[in-house]
Amino acid sequence: MIRAVGFDLGETLVEYEGVPLNWQREYPIALNAVAALWTDCLGASQMAAGTAVLERFNTRLTRRASEVDHTVVFGDLLTAMDAPATHVSALIDPAADAFFAVFQRRARPVQAACQVVDALLGAGISVGVLTDVPYGMPRRLALSDLDVAGLDALAATTVTSVEVGVRKPDPRGFAALATRLGCSPHEMLFVGNEQKDVLGALAAGMSAVLLWRDASPAPSWGQHHCVSGLAQVVGIGGVGGHCPTSVSS
Q1: Rounded to whole angstroms, how far apart are CA atoms 84 and 197?
Q2: pLDDT digit string (tens) for 196-237?
Q3: Residue 86 belongs to what domain range?
Q4: Cα-flanking dihedrals φ and ψ of residue 159, to 5°?
Q5: How far apart are the first and last CA of the chain?
Q6: Which residues contact 239 (CB under 8 A, 6 or more apart)?
Q7: pTM of the predicted structure, to 2 decimals
Q8: 150 and 41 in a common domain
Q9: Are 189 and 210 a contacting pair, CB within 8 Å?
Q10: What span, in angstroms and rounded, lies between the C-alpha atoms of 87 and 38?
Q11: Is 248 inside a domain boundary?
């Protein structure tokens, strides 16, 4: 029996209008926003050094199994960009805020996300989130995306890769989510839009649901179910009964 449903966050429950999965294109804007904390002009060498740090931590370029905290990422970033050495520690959190604000200002819920979550919760199904955060994003900022999208009810049942210390598809993150939801992985569906979501869910013993919104045929990664819209999650295997008529996929 399915007692809980877990969701990936980015591009599953929340999307970022105009922002690609790989953030490299936005680096100059984000780095200038960080540099504004201590200077009016970011030099070319500082921009190059900051870009190099971000590329080193960019998991779209170099995948890693373990997770890093934002204090590591932004400590390295500030040092590389010649922030005043005596102020680096104090600047880490403001730098993270300035950097992520460039991307988060375009956050919005994926179509039907709020209705589907409400339908599941209303049917007595526990709902949670497991998200691989970019560049060690602090939990408070990950939760702000849920808040902006009207999904703040999931704050307490959200698990980030920083908290568990590993990234998908490592099954430990999925197991941590099941524990947070008070059930066994075998009693859960997990919904995500990437191969790592499917493989991690399967490795943890969950039923995997691939959200595939592209026009091209969905890949076969071993998922139990494939949906083109979130509304289709409601009703899989009897989960949550039937989707409300007001919810469209």
Answers
A1: 40
A2: 999 999 999 999 999 999 999 999 999 999 999 999 999 897
A3: 23-104
A4: -120, 130
A5: 25
A6: 2, 5, 120, 123, 125, 189, 233
A7: 0.93
A8: no
A9: no
A10: 9
A11: no
